[in-house]
Amino acid sequence: MAGDRVRLGLLGCGVVGSATARILVENAHEIESRSGVPVELARVAIRDTSKKRDAFVSPGLVTDDPWDVVKDPSIDLVVEVIGGIEPARDLVLAAIGSGKHVVTANKELLANEASTVMKAASKAGVKVLFEASVAGGTPIVRPMTESLAGDRVRRIMGILNGTTNFVLTRMSESGESFADALAEAAERGYTELDPSADIEGHDAAAKLAILASIAFDAAVVSGDVGCEGIANVTARDMAAAHDLGYEIKLLAVAERHGDEVAARVHPAMMPRTHPLASVRNELNAIFVEAEHAGELMFLGRGAGGPATASAIVGDIVEIVRDRGAPAAYPGAAALERRARIQPAGDVASRYYVVLSVADRPGVLASVAGAFARHGVSIASVRQEGFGDEATLVLITHSASEAQHAATFSELETLEPVRRLRSRMRVLGTAEV
Ligand code: HSE
To answer: pLDDT tens digits for 289-326?
Structure first.
């Protein structure tokens, strides 16, 4: 990358790739003045070359073979927006191996193969930047790797999936069922063709693994993140949350406990006064608690062509501007080591619990006994309804998942408990 211009190769030209091409053309002046040299889109690999493209990709640049781009010795920097692990992994490693810098939006690749990719980049003396892989256009990777590099992050809590945040917002604000809210998200074009990775929390888990790896200086992979989706959240849970002054959000949480990292994605109730509770619709947000900087929140668009492309072009400018500087990603060495993951049963939180019960003397004592036997302390309890309609709504103090799970199992066997109707973690309160 020593010449008087930098030549880019783009792998993939769908929604994000074409938005990237567009910004490179429309903002060419700003990009050149901030990078120091013109940045030229020189090759574009497109799976289906017969598809109509917009004017920002001239037909002469197009190939249907991504290896043409990776093997082209005149290309200085490869932008990978194909997604998925293969063939993206092989292409990225080959680009790195031939001395090309890489910008990628690929969360699956980073959340599973970061150490392989970063080791290869360190060896080859090239940069791999990936701001767009987490929360699309919302800057979070660079603040974590650079601005907070001298601090110690204690906890990250994120709303890292726009589809599920949209669904939960509709359920909260319009009282819709999960199914109706999901149908509305699909109508508006927010859902992927197969929305299961979003709904089940796996998309957010991959993004959390990337953030946790940066925050805690050791590789956390997707499989390390405990995952529970939102399909079982009911309109009734939402109404109950409102009664308590809470909202329900799909939260991605990573925290350090001694030399262990706990990372999980699950729906949780959180007080409406918490900054994350006010993040509506398809927006993403990351709430970071750092030892010295204190509490920080990053909010923005987590998906969509233009927003994701903005993050990609920001990474391109950084690489071009800093050409000639030491190339390794600042946390690369740490990523070569795997994080020690806290066993899922040890992770502590509070729980909201709803039980359908018989309404007669001694029932509360028997329910309270089950909690007590497993060391779970009850913070509040309320009875709603009478006779056949009686329900108990409890909130616990912080206790481990294992303690809660044992309590729930015992509750299900208690004679006066008709049904364990609902349970959900409570986060963002003074206690945990
Ligand atoms: N499908 C994701 C979301 C965006 O709904 O946020 C891509 O990760």
So the answer is: 999 999 999 999 999 999 999 999 999 999 999 987 76
Residue 299 backbone phi and psi in degrees, to 5:
-135, 135
Kindly report whether the peptide bond that precedes residue 38 is cis, defined as omega within 30 degrees of 0.
no
Identify whether the C-beta of residue 388 lies closer than 8 Å to the C-beta of residue 377. Answer: no
Pocket of ligand 1 contains residue 20 by CB under 6 Å: no
326, β-bridge pairs: none
In this structure, the residue with its CA closest to atom 4 of ligand 1 is 303
**Nearest to residue 303, comparing CAs of 226, 209, 172, 189?**
189
Radius of gyration over every alpha carbon of the chain, rounded to an integer in angstroms: 24
What's the CA-to-centroid distance between 161 and ligand 1, angstroms? 5
Q: Select from 109, 170, 190, 203 the residue to mutate for testing ligand 1; criterion: most ligand atoms less than 8 Å from CB.
A: 203
Q: β-strands 260-271, 399-400: how paired?
A: unpaired
Query: What pLDDT digit, counting tens, does each position of 390-423 carry?
Result: 999 999 999 999 999 999 999 999 999 999 999 9
